[in-house]
């Protein structure tokens, strides 16, 4: 079976890596990256439009396409492929609004009775002030559209809130969601859905802030771990029943069934799990640690879901936890410097880790930095402390000027051990 992976980051490297281990799968990627090129055939793209990806799928006559990032999904890639009779795993443009519009997501949560933070939507000066009066501080201020992880600001004072509104309204757009501030531990919970049935993945945790102990500005994600112990079976059932099934049923009922990866970003509050956001794709870097733990069945599950029949499908899991440490470039998450030479990937892999590549490029025979998040050094262990130690031992082999990484990935999970 020929499978095309859309995208070229660490998440897509992990998807391609997992698929490449299934004996009957031949992997293609568009555009891919230097890491993916070692295990798959990469097809260059210029503008990254749904049309260009369709041409890539047609050129290689692939049997299935799986989409990594949100932008092509929100741009309607699934509708386009289907209208050309091409099999693809992902949500339609209508269902992808769950991530594309925070206001739509909140509407779905309210209508489907899904626990989430209290919120007010506003689009002009007077209404912003009224929304801030109503919600109070601290407050989560969220841009309505896709903002590549930069669309949410937590404000602790009225002054901070007004500055945040000003910045979002001028740089992203006037429609803003104001949310009650929730406290608790964040968990990423991702399922495959065929529109009706779901196949849950184990829970994982991202580390969004740039510095240890969750300090400093938000990033795309500085590391992740996945461990069967993050949620117990009662919590998993509660998340499925309150955050996943109602959303799937609601969208089905609306005539816009959700096929694809449904990612619920949860806050585990003292009054139970609440949904902070939905994404309509796998998380990055959660995917790196999650797929590192899957032994088999991934390609079959994607195909079954794309064929709208996930019932009876299962995944084979390694019981062991996995940890992914993101190594980021100088200046990330602000002004990123590129062109620094990367060494030590082979040594890290010889030590038992898998190094997923994200912001890298080949320059003659050298591998160099080409983006904010550069590598995801991923390892497992028979215990979480062991997985953490293995990942950091591999990190020690890797070098590039200006590299930044957190030293505490996975630490929150240690209390389960
Ligand atoms: P989102 O993109 O909506 O998940 O928001 C990005 C990050 O902002 C989340 O991962 C949380 O860390 C934080 N956040 C978002 N909404 C809230 C909220 N209502 N209360 C507390 N933190 C939040
Ligand atoms: N790791 C968070 C995300 O992919 O949105």
Key traits:
417 residues, alpha+beta, Rossmann fold, Dna Ligase, domain 1, D-amino Acid Aminotransferase, Chain A, domain 1, 4 domains, 5-stranded parallel sheet, 5-stranded antiparallel sheet, globular, binds adenosine monophosphate, binds glycine
What this model shows, in words?
- The protein is an alpha+beta fold and 417 residues long.
- The chain has 4 domains: 2-90, Rossmann fold, CATH 3.40.50.20; 120-180, ATP-grasp fold, A domain (Dna Ligase, domain 1), CATH 3.30.1490.20; 185-317, D-amino Acid Aminotransferase, Chain A, domain 1; 322-416, Alpha-Beta Complex (Glycinamide Ribonucleotide Synthetase, Chain A, domain 4).
- The chain is 32% helix and 28% strand.
- The protein contains 13 helices and 24 strands.
- It has helices spanning 10-20, 50-60, 70-74, 77-83, 93-100, 102-112, 125-135, 158-171, 233-253, 286-292, 298-306, 345-350, 384-395, and strands at 2-7, 26-31, 41-42, 64-67, 88-89, 119-122, 139-143, 152-155, 176-180, 185-194, 198-200, 204-206, 209-211, 215-218, 223-226, 259-269, 272-279, 294-296, 316-317, 322-328, 354-357, 360-363, 366-369, 373-380.
- The strands form 7 sheets. The protein has a 5-stranded parallel β-sheet, sandwiched between helices. Strands 12-15-20-24-21 form a 5-stranded antiparallel β-sheet.
- Strand 13 (209-211) and strand 14 (215-218) form a beta hairpin.
- Helix 1 packs parallel to helix 10.
- The longest helix has 21 residues, at 233-253.
- The radius of gyration is 21 Å and the shape is globular.
- The model has no long low-confidence stretch (mean pLDDT 96).
- The protein binds adenosine monophosphate and glycine.
- The site of adenosine monophosphate has 14 residues, from strand 7, strand 8, strand 9 and strand 17.
